[in-house]
Amino acid sequence: MVKQNMDGEDKKSVRQRLLMQQLGAQRYISLEEVSSRFSVTQQTARRDIMELEKLGKLRRLHGGAMVANSIDPNELRSRRIRNAQAKERIGACVADLIDDGASIFLDTGTTCEAVARALVRRKNLRVLSYSLRIAAYLSEVTDFTIAVPGGFVRQVDGGVFQEQSRSFISGFKFDISILSVSGVDDEGDLGDDDQAEVETVQCAMRQSQKVLLAVDSSKFGHRGLVRLGTLSDVHMLVSDAPPSDAIALAVKKGSLTFHCAR
Predict the structure, then answer these.
(1) Smallest Cα–Cα separation from 60: which of 156, 199, 201, 205?
(2) CB atoms closer than 10 angstroms to residue 100
(3) What does pTM read for this prediction?
């Protein structure tokens, strides 16, 4: 017989509710922590995470889980307005650097959405993106070949995530990966705020002949929560203004090409 608490919840429901509360506070939780915190086996912890993922309440990662929506909706709306003209110029500059017929990985986010809008003047592109927003836009206004990984859709920005996304991406080869980040610090490290996105982008970078980083200048000198890589992993940097002296030095050490979108 399943024991219930005074509110009619069984042990599993209580455990999953408390798991979600903990996840809301720290945004990521490992299988080991779930197992230890709730005194269950890792198999039980994994089943809890899989059930909650099916309900769209979290995103399963290798070895743990994170919140389903890692970007606050208000923050995303603010990003769409912030530096909008600079992002449009960046998008136009990026499109000038892309050859017709290229195979492309295109990151998610407002800067990459601006890139997508500019890419419509190119021909015969093959694009993989885990942004449904980008994929839907390009499929409506171009005849490009579009690919998206399967998984759960993050409602706030249309990002698609699942633990198998990386294995899906690893089956492709790209001429170029176009990505954006939350920050480029003075040491030249690239940072973002979402572990799942970082792992997805890192996979695409490994499958790419070249990597292009598109960021507006407000990102220079800022540090993201999760380290994606360094400027030495990038072949081209596109921004609306030159970086600080410290980052410019890192750019020089990395031997990448800087393009200023005027």
Answers:
(1) 199
(2) 9
(3) 0.72
Beta bridge partners of 10: 4
Q: Count of CB atoms within 10 A of residue 55's CB?
A: 11
What are the tens digits of pLDDT across the range 5-27? Answer: 545 568 899 999 998 888 766 66
Q: Which long-range contacts (CB under 8 A, 24 or more apart) does 258-261 make?
A: 259/93, 259/97, 260/93, 261/86, 261/89, 261/90, 261/92, 261/93
Domain count of the fold of the chain: 2
| Residue 3 lies inside a defined structural domain of this protein | no
Within-domain flag for 107: yes
At 197, the pLDDT band (50, 70, 90 cuts) reads confident
Q: What is the DSSP letter of 256?
A: P
Rounded to a whole number of angstroms, the distance between the first and last alpha carbons of the chain is: 69
- Within the chain, strands assigned E span 28-30, 58-61, 64-67, 103-106, 126-129, 145-147, 152-154, 159-161, 174-179, 183-184, 189-192, 208-214, 226-230, 236-239, 257-260
Does 177 reside within a domain? yes
Residue 154 pLDDT exceeds 60 = yes
Q: Could you give the percent of the chain with pLDDT greater than 90?
A: 52
Q: Look at residue 2 in the predicted model and tell me its pLDDT.
A: 37
CATH number, position 29: 1.10.10.10
